[in-house]
Amino acid sequence: xxxxxxxxRITAAAAAAAPVAAAAPDAERARWLRAVADRLDEHTxxxxxxxxxxxxxxxxxxxxxVARTTGQLRLFADVITEGSYLExxxxxxxxxxxxxxxxxxxxxxxxxxxxxxxxSNFPFAFSVAGGDxxxxxxxxxxxxxxxHSGHLELSVRMAELVAEALTEAGAPAGMFAxxxxxxxxxxxxxxxxxxxxxxxxxxxxxxxxFDIASSRPEPIPFYGELGSINPVVLTSAAVSxxxxxxxxxxxxxxxxxxxxxxxxxGVVFVPxxxxxxxxxxxxxxxxxxxxxxxxxxxxAFPRGLQSxxxxxxxxxxxxxxxxxxxxxxxxxxxxxxxxxxxxERPDTLLEEVFGPTTLLIRYGSEEELLGALxxxxxxxxxxxxxxxxxxxxxxVGALRERAGRVVFGGWPxxxxxxxxxxxxxxxxxxxxxxxxxxxxxxxxxxxxxxxQSAPAAHLPxxxxxxxxxxxxxxxxxxxxxx
Amino acid sequence: xxxxxxxxRITAAAAAAAPVAAAAPDAERARWLRAVADRLDEHTxxxxxxxxxxxxxxxxxxxxxVARTTGQLRLFADVITEGSYLExxxxxxxxxxxxxxxxxxxxxxxxxxxxxxxxSNFPFAFSVAGGDxxxxxxxxxxxxxxxHSGHLELSVRMAELVAEALTEAGAPAGMFAxxxxxxxxxxxxxxxxxxxxxxxxxxxxxxxxFDIASSRPEPIPFYGELGSINPVVLTSAAVSxxxxxxxxxxxxxxxxxxxxxxxxxGVVFVPxxxxxxxxxxxxxxxxxxxxxxxxxxxxAFPRGLQSxxxxxxxxxxxxxxxxxxxxxxxxxxxxxxxxxxxxERPDTLLEEVFGPTTLLIRYGSEEELLGALxxxxxxxxxxxxxxxxxxxxxxVGALRERAGRVVFGGWPxxxxxxxxxxxxxxxxxxxxxxxxxxxxxxxxxxxxxxxQSAPAAHLPxxxxxxxxxxxxxxxxxxxxxx
Lengths: 482, 482
Fold this sequence. Notes:
By secondary structure, the first copy, chain A, is an alpha/beta fold. The first copy, chain A, has 16 helices and 17 strands. Chain A has helices at residues 4-23, 26-42, 44-55, 59-82, 131-139, 152-169, 182-190, 203-215, 236-254, 276-285, 295-309, 325-328, 339-344, 346-349, 366-373, 393-402, and strands at 89-91, 104-110, 114-117, 143-146, 176-179, 196-200, 222-225, 231-234, 267-271, 315-318, 333-338, 357-363, 379-385, 403-408, 446-452, 473-475, 478-480. The model of chain A has no long low-confidence stretch (mean pLDDT 97).
């Protein structure tokens, strides 16, 4: 556990590193990110071994996650090299305007030291060197990571590798540190040197930290990804055309990573009497369960199932509601209820159950479907399976209102890391209007500064007339490409 | 006063208007904004008359402010027509990648109904049809304005004109409404239909509303501009070269609008013994005071002066600390202290005093200057007057850390409305990383949505392959201009 004196030394060092990192050219920070990525790639086998011993997620999945994580670091190196992330805008002076307009130029600067809270379920991609860390380092913010207790040995080893790689690549001391323990985590969010927080975890834990961030004398942005039930809608025509394929796809998605993805499809709207339940029961019969990430999660899983199953309008479609997930691993379970029951008791029936389970919600009419959909809490994703000639405009509209990503004809569990990705959504999916995955995640850790009538010598390179960085900019209202 | 039943009807109507406004083409919303601007221009004389009777700011200033306000509405019409504000990003599928990458396309959608709190000091530009309203309407968000009690008659008349113009231009019912009274304002921020808040006002009032927004079951972004003391630094060389010119410029700036600008220079770092105080005393002798906006402000002004002047290290440079601003109008006052005193008692000496006053802070060395500057709370602006061969790199760095706009060789009170403007800054200047003036203010009221593998028919026009809107987009990582 990091004690509070040590924490203060760490955040003070981060604050001291901040202006140095802010002044480092983009090309140099890109090298830092690539150095970290290379270092992690070199140590993949060792890291996967430690991660598997702590999370039991298996070496195939974990190896893929290391590759995704290093790919993410390299994407942000590309993003800052391309330069649009600086949002450089130049408005030249117009002395003839009424009133006369001065020369104004705007660019984004790093906010300063950032706290990052690791997630339990992605020990690499949303952890010590995950997307929050990569995007913060990319824009020039020192990072202090709060380790997740579910994979502490891995976190410590990751932090060593990240710190070594950064130091060897020339990053300033204080650019990166790891802290452990809940007390240190809370103090980190309250620390005056910390200027923003990235978080992936539970609604309860995330909201408590959000409240600390918001009630500081100087409040700071809290970019939390808290919880998501990721609704899926199957139209009647889709189920008629390919019930078995859909059942197989759904089962693969809700059991992926033993049901511990933030994007797991937690509720599935299915047409009443369409026969989809039998298809799912068949698919689940062949699906594997597995050990859950932590004892706490393993104990909560059957409790969540039992709570749902005790509702008079919930039936069991497949799998054992009574199970000892802690001792024997979690077994996939599918439950079912009705749209009417969901409208009556949304808080009970739409609670996220972390683990390999999903709730089918039978609907009779589009009206019933839309009524129940309106009760679904904000989610990271919303998915639609329809046939080409289905009229689904209203359904798509409703899904878009509830989620940050609308998936057509696929499953939400995969999250591509690219320029367009949005991994966010209305509360409680996230506490902000930003993504934690993909290129635009960088904007969370930047603040605009405008320079008025600045002599060339005092303008950052991004704003100098001759565009020495060769980046896209808006000049006098028009985008100018390099 | 709007009672709570009426408030609920208003926010429900706004929620009903939201999807209609979101679906309206940009060109149509641009027409709405221009219709409002035209209507206000037609009624300038009437509006200025009402505003002057309530604010006593004078018809010249108020007429200019109407022009600025309608210019702002038209700027946002241009911004949404240009289309970059949608931040459209398209990443085509890459089936050969490991893992295969789906087609992902991201665009910004309006967040939904927005609450806007008017300011006392800009009855047009930061009020009923000011920048917050313009930027929210522009992106398709219905707006509910909380009127400022300091210009209620004007607010009601403005709201009539805005609502009429919007209705005649074809905007949906519920797109715009006005509420009055503190209770309605608090309830507005807590209302579940409201998805974001724009605010300009005091630190105390703004923080109270920020706390309501942050403690909702579903927290919402609160874009507050609260308070700012706007430091100015004069170098020794600048004062040697042109003390009288600087004194005249400073006096014009801190007395503009009777010292009631958010960007008023509240503290001025002056070289010890450089003779600047005499120059200021001379300039202030010729400066006019005037009536303050409200009785509360008029009573607070001399109280603030007396509190500062009672400090043992504060001296009076010019003007009457004892004055009856409520009865006789406010008289300009300049006080002075030392950098050492500021470092010892920053909370007392750096408190914003609203009205025509500024505090000179004498510094001996750059070290002393930087030490005192580090105590300055986050501000909207920071200003430097230096000579060409001054070495001011450290000072510029310190100013940039404290403010959202760094002004070179000018005065901060003018705020150009353009693409590059940033009217924001570290807390308490603002509660967010966004501006409330200029084109990028629109981003406050938009949320990203990603569409994965969407059939063309379900993609918004901004994301369709043939780019029917003709807007700039990022396609497969590269910006493509129309």
